[in-house]
Amino acid sequence: MIAASQVLDGKGGVLHDTRIVIDGSKIAAIDPKAGPVDYDLRSLTVLPGWIDAHVHITWSFGPDGKNAGEGGTTPEATYAAASNAWLTLMAGFTTVQDVGSAATIPLRDAIAQGRLPGPRILTSGGSIFGRGEQTGTADEIRAFVRKQKAAGADLIKIYASGGMTRGTMTMSQEQLNAACDEANKQGLRSLVHAYRDAVRAATLAGCTEVEHGLGASEEDLKLMAQRGTYIDPQAGLLLETYLQYKDRYLAPPYYTEEGFAAMKGLIQTHQDFLRRARLIPGLKIVYGTDAVAGSHGRNAEDFIHRVRDGGVRPMDAMVSANLLGAQALGMADQIGSIAPGLEADIIAIAGDPLKDITGVRRVVFVMRGGVVYKYAPPVGIPADSVPQL
Ligand SMILES: [Zn+2]
Q1: Which residues have a Cβ under 8 Å from the Cβ of 198 and sit 6 or more positions away?
Q2: How many angstroms is it from 209 CA to the middle of ligand 1?
Q3: Which end of the chain has fewer surrounding CB within 10 Å, N or C?
Q4: Of 383 and 37, the one with more pLDDT
């Protein structure tokens, strides 16, 4: 049982001076009179574990310090992926969606079976890379989607356009329609890397969620709101990571000097995009960081960018990684809120993120599925908030 003075319920509400009763892996009740107290989290802010809708959990730096990409199968890469999972969990993220590597499947399963600590992982396994005609016929694309499902994918990841600044659609509308329609038929969600005109195409194709989205027009965003298509824009962590580790990433033709030179300005462009997107009524903006090598465990930094630099209200930022994030995963009946019957994914931070968003850096308590993985009260909190053992 957890005692709390301030609880953000994940849905936009705040509970005061209450207790959360845990039974096994689940939240059994919210009852201010329940006892005895196992974890006294008064003086902290308690909230549902965060959901990061877009990570590359296996992406790491190699033994030489350089970017080793994702999907490596060396011992170093394997341990690095396990370490990324641990760091992500310690940062308060109890569920992540991995979009792009078959190497994630055994990591996902090891965590699910309780053999490794980490966040609950949903993964696409591999991806569909748009390559124009070569992407395949509609039937071939549909067959690939089914193959991914058979291989254990939880969702389908599709690359439908070039990168942040250039490149048109890399798949036709017909190809995208086939990919997302087949995913729907197979009961899988579809996430589409899309910039500019690919955003509208993915929306029209009935895909679940658009990743990135830069270059979408006002009309495109309104159409997404109308259709209920989720959007997952980034606000700074990804590009800051690249800039911070430039020497490790620099490797033409993918990571070039010109590319890095453009990144500073691009951070602003992303934040301007978020400022525009958040004003579209009904547009469902989820929290996804695109965490790569060097970002894992720092996933919460994008909250700070979103609020401080992107004009997002702190409560909206929290809900984007709680209820809304859970809805985007089709898991709102299991995670994303603090309510009876849901998984006991509960975190606590020193500070109040509604008043100072940088509090998201100070995660001191992490419970996932009723198991406590972290309980490190920071110095300076009252002695009577430390549990009596
Ligand atoms: Zn990504």
Answers
A1: 160, 161, 168, 169, 170, 171, 176, 192
A2: 13
A3: C
A4: 37
Nearest to 325 by CA among 237, 232, 238: 232
Q: What is the pLDDT of residues 220-276, one digit of tens each?
A: 999 999 999 999 999 999 999 999 999 999 999 889 999 999 998 999 999 999 999
Task: Note the Cα 179 to chain centre separation in Å.
Answer: 22
Better-scored residue on pLDDT, 382 or 236: 236
For residue 29, give the DSSP letter.
Answer: E
Residue 46: CB atoms within 10 A of its CB come to 25
Cα of 138 from ligand 1 centre, angstroms: 24
In the 8-state DSSP scheme, what is residue 100? S
pTM, two decimals, is 0.95
* Residue 88: HSE in the Cβ half-sphere, 13 Å Cα cutoff: 38
- Per-residue DSSP letter, 285: B
Ligand 1 centroid distance, CA of 185 (Å) = 24
Other residues' Cβ atoms within 10 Å of the Cβ of residue 374: 17
- What is the distance in A from the centroid of ligand 1 to the CA of 54? 6
Indicate the angle between helix axes 218-227 and 257-277, nearest 10 degrees: 60
- Residue 81 CA to ligand 1 center (angstroms) comes to 16
Q: Which residue type sits at 384? A: D
Instruction: Kindly give the distance from the C-alpha atom of residue 290 to the centroid of ligand 1, in angstroms, as a whole number.
Output: 5
Q: What percent of the chain stands above pLDDT 90?
A: 92
Could you give the CA distance from residue 161 to residue 171 in angstroms, rounded to a whole number? 7
**Hey, what are 339's tokens?**
């309510």
Task: List 212's β-bridge partners, or say none.
Answer: 194
Distances (CA, A) of 300 to 49, 211, 356: 11, 18, 13
Q: In what helix (H) or strand (E) does residue 105 lie, and over which residues does it extend?
A: helix 104-112
- Say how many Å lie between the CA of residue 159 and the centre of ligand 1: 10
Q: Is the pLDDT confidence value at 386 over 70? A: no
Ligand 1 centroid to Cα of residue 97, in Å, is: 10
Residue labelled with tokens 């495109």: 220
pLDDT band at 78 (very low <50, low <70, confident <90, very high): very high
